[in-house]
Design a protein that fits this description.
Layout: H1 25-54, H2 59-86, H3 89-112, H4 118-141, H5 143-146, H6 152-180, H7 183-203, H8 218-230, H9 233-261, H10 268-293, H11 298-318, H12 322-349, H13 356-384, H14 387-407, E1 438-445, H15 451-468, E2 470-477, E3 484-491, H16 494-502, H17 507-517, E4 527-532, E5 550-554
Length: 558
């Protein structure tokens, strides 16, 4: 999949400053448009919850507003990520914003006409959530197309600050509009807020994607994404850290309203002040984190920020002083943005273009699922034990899990080379069909003194084969000829194997192959055979071309 060079997003050179990505005109325009849209979304959330109460809805009905907002995203984010890799990302984003606009505009019109019912409210909120589900993984996936590779951590930091500022400002503005006009005003503002994003996406001259083998079927794309995530240990580390952090850190967001209404005795305005403190901390983090990142690696940032966040939870849950809690929430906002931006940037840097959106969908799923499960779990703890315990227990989990999730399974300090390359000779054209499975057998000749090093390299190659499409992989040594090793792997279809050759190779995987090639016996090259599952062969094809049964090629280094 082709990507524009950083110069296409702007002419600014790479920089380590927090605001460097904003020098790129396209990133800056989209960031501002998203800030307005995110603010409108938070305003709408307040308006929808308020309207549900006006319509006679009880506690359960009001809670269903949040369910309608999050459930479609949770259910659709994986197929949405697959669509982000097989369709044009710009057009998919335009479609998602159009769906969200229609939902918000319809809700505003119906509410102004006093025609909204609880069922219609939930249905239209669910429609907007569908649009959000289509957009979330793809918006993350296009970040490397908007900024240079060196600026991805800063871009992730700015995007995180964007959401936190909107979280702090949106509810307060929504309350003002509801008091002055009514909840329909928040829906109208939300509808208008999407126009900016639509305009920016419309004028973006994104280069067309290069797909020599055509677009994947969505089911095949989802399977390919799942295989990649299972076979990418570095990315799995990011998912692990995200799940642990979201599961425990969600206690603050889930219990903060109860803390405000209960022990602190605050009004709605006071609760807004607590959210503003978090947003202020996130903004401060955009200034502090680039300086810290220049000295510390991602593991240190995540570990220190996680422990810092846990300490703020202890203060919030045990100290009854409002100034102390506000100060702790500012620190919590800084720690939250530090962890999320570091993990988000790591996730983007660890993924090749061909699977970026679908793999980032798993990142979103893990994080959102962790928050949802954590909110439920800590709510039950608060009801069953005490509000204080519901802050202290997850804080302890965060502190104890830091060496488990970060130090024992570290994040890579240096980004992997995920540039798309095509380092295999292209197989014959007559494999461009959906028949299979295909068994690939590679014969390697390795002298005994290189055997141990060769087998270590083959472990990396095995994971690479699985990431790009292999369903089974193995390496075997011939008992009669100890210098002969047979690498075997299966691919679901011949067409899927072609994608391994043509579309899914990266510079990192090319280097693994070259390492193995340096260890083979002098004067030999790996001998490759491709065998098609005999019972799946088309009887009409038999005898016409023997290549349908098997073909042989040489794997030679360039």
């Amino acid at each position: 999949m082709s990507q524009p060079s950083p110069g296409q997003s702007g002419s600014a050179p790479p920089s380590k400053t927090a605001w460097a990505p904003l020098r790129r005109p396209l990133f800056r325009a989209l960031w501002i448009a998203q800030l307005v849209a995110n603010t409108g979304t938070w305003m709408q959330t307040v308006g929808a919850q308020w309207l549900m109460g006006d319509l006679g809805g009880g506690t359960l009905a009001i809670a269903l507003v949040q369910t309608a907002t999050t459930l479609p995203v949770f259910l659709l984010v994986i197929p949405a990520g697959a669509l982000g890799d097989i369709l044009d990302r710009r057009r998919l984003l335009l479609t998602s914003q159009a769906i969200t606009f229609v939902g918000a505009a319809g809700l505003a019109a119906l509410t102004a006409a006093n025609a909204t019912t609880p069922a219609l409210l939930l249905m239209l909120i669910g429609l907007m959530a569908v649009g959000q589900a289509l957009a979330i993984p793809t918006f993350q996936a296009i970040q490397p197309e908007l900024v240079s590779r060196d600026e991805i951590p800063q871009a992730a930091l700015l995007n995180g600050a964007n959401g936190n500022v909107a979280r702090a400002v949106g509810p307060a503005l929504g309350g003002v509009l509801i008091a002055a006009v009514g909840p329909e005003a928040t829906f109208a503002f939300n509808a208008l807020s999407f126009f900016g994003v639509i305009v920016v996406l419309f004028i973006w001259k994104r280069p067309p994607d290069h797909r020599p083998l055509g677009a994947e079927h969505i089911v095949d794309a989802i399977r390919a994404g799942a295989r990649y995530v299972r076979s990418a240990p570095e990315f799995a580390t990011v998912l692990l850290c995200s799940m642990v952090f979201a599961l425990s850190a969600s206690a603050t967001w889930a219990l903060l309203p109860a803390l405000a209404r209960g022990p602190l005795g605050l009004s709605a305005g006071g609760y807004g002040l607590l959210l503003t403190a978090v947003g202020s901390g996130a903004v401060m983090g955009t200034f502090v984190l680039p300086v810290v990142r220049a000295r510390w690696g991602p593991n240190a940032i995540v570990a220190v920020s996680t422990i810092g966040y846990a300490l703020t939870m202890i203060i919030i849950g045990t100290v009854g002083s409002l100034p102390a809690i506000l100060a702790a929430l500012v620190v919590a906002g800084m720690a939250w943005i530090a962890v999320l931006s570091t993990l988000g940037a790591s996730a983007q840097l660890l993924l090749p273009a061909w699977t970026r959106a679908r793999s980032l969908a798993y990142y979103q799923l893990v994080f959102m699922g962790g928050q949802a499960v954590g909110a439920l779990a800590w709510g039950l703890v608060a009801d069953g034990l005490a509000l204080r315990a519901a802050f202290l227990i997850p804080a302890a989990v965060l502190i104890l899990s830091t060496p488990i999730g970060v130090l024992r399974v570290p994040l890579p300090d240096a980004p992997l080379d995920m540039r798309s390359v095509r380092h295999y000779p292209e197989p014959p054209e007559d494999l461009k069909h959906g028949r299979g499975p295909v068994l690939v057998v590679v014969e390697w000749r390795v002298v005994p003194e290189n055997a141990e090093e060769f087998l270590e390299v083959m472990r990396k190659i095995g994971r690479a084969r699985r990431r790009t499409g292999a369903t089974m992989w193995g390496i075997f040594q011939d008992m009669e000829e100890p210098t002969l090793y047979l690498e075997t792997f299966t691919v679901q279809t011949a067409h899927e194997h072609l994608r391994q050759h043509v579309e899914r190779g990266t510079a990192m995987e090319q280097e693994f192959d070259l390492q193995a090639l340096r260890l083979v016996m002098e004067g030999t090259f790996p001998y490759v055979r491709h065998l098609l599952w005999a019972y799946a062969a088309d009887p009409d094809a038999e005898g016409k071309d023997p290549k349908f049964k098997t073909f042989v090629s040489l794997l030679r280094p360039r």
